[in-house]
Amino acid sequence: MPDLAPHELRVLVAVAHARGFSAAATALGMTQSAVSHSVRGSERKIGAVLFDRGRQGATPTVAGIRAVAHARRILRLLETMGAEARGAEADTVAGPLRIAAFRSAALHLLPPALERLTARHPGIEPEVRMVRELGRGTAGEVADGHADLGIATIGTTSPVPPELVGGVLLEEGYALVHPAGHVAPRSLPLVDWAENCTSYTREWWAEQEWLPRATVQAEDDGAVLSMVSSGFGMAVMPALSLNGAPPTVEITDLGPDRPTRSVGYVTTPELARTVAVRALIRELRGLYGTSPDDHRLR
């Protein structure tokens, strides 16, 4: 199969992002016919239809979704190749480092690591984007080429995807959170949010007769904590979400059988060997401990 050139990869990524040939052409400074010609050429080389064309624009097919993810990752490696070559003598690198993280990790876990990272490598420019840890979550952002590294919930019920590598950084326990001084906190309504629990934690919840069904759903853990602080209800929350909890809430340990959540990092096998990603992993491990569960990184 003839190789696709970098400019052909950029066209595929632009069409997928814009969901249309015309908008992609505008973004790339090309004509619509040139974009269409490039996509047809890429489809011939690959041997698969990559986009469904219609009145609503261009939608990636199943093959197109896979091809565009590879295209993003290849283009990112080309950028990294240049950056690392320029900093080879000093074993450093300059440029963006794209990180996807769920909210509590972005607020409380990443900042100390990024502070240490940029002190050692001032040329690195972290770009942190908060991603809801639902569905494919942060790991999906890495697999699709949108992020170089993701902070993800991983473990037996949420394993590292087979196309990625990663490791556990910390195991955080869950605790009961309720308004401070409330005489019967377990009588309060249960407040929850969609990202809160893995299937393992849900099984634990189902076994607790004292826990009612969640009748209040919030957007994120910050909103949950605010509701609890205002006396609106109680919640069961992981440790990261409770960093900086106000004095108006009380945190009660759930004992040795409490549920836990594994938090770690994921990246691609090729990016795991790059200077910037290696450096960030080193800082994360230094702060939160090297896990024996590092997956395919030894």
Give a description of the structure.
This protein is globular. It is 40% helix and 22% strand. It has helices at residues 6-18, 21-28, 32-46, 62-86, 103-120, 137-143, 199-207, 221-229, 275-288, and strands spanning 51-54, 57-60, 95-101, 124-130, 149-153, 165-179, 191-193, 216-218, 235-238, 249-253, 260-267. The chain is of the alpha/beta class. α1 crosses α4 and α5 crosses α9. Mean pLDDT is 91; it is low at 291-298. It folds into three domains: 6-70, Arc Repressor Mutant, subunit A (Orthogonal Bundle); 90-170 and 262-288, D-Maltodextrin-Binding Protein, domain 2 (3-Layer(aba) Sandwich), CATH 3.40.190.10; 172-259, Periplasmic binding protein-like II (D-Maltodextrin-Binding Protein, domain 2), CATH 3.40.190.
Helix content: 25-40%
List the helices and strands in order. HHHEEHEHEHEEEHEHEEEH
Give me the Rg, rounded: 23 Å
Going by CATH, the homologous superfamily of the largest domain would be Periplasmic binding protein-like II
Q: What percent strand? A: 15-25%
Number of domains: 3
- In CATH, the topology of the largest domain is named D-Maltodextrin-Binding Protein, domain 2
Q: Average pLDDT across residues?
A: 91
Annotation, overall tally of beta strands: 11
Shape: globular
User: What's the architecture of the largest domain, going by CATH?
Assistant: 3-Layer(aba) Sandwich
Q: Just give the CATH class of the largest domain.
A: Alpha Beta
Number of helices: 9
Helix/sheet category: alpha/beta
For the sheet with most strands, the description reads: 7 strands, mixed
Low-pLDDT ranges: 291-298
Q: What is the CA-CA span between the terminal residues?
A: 33 Å
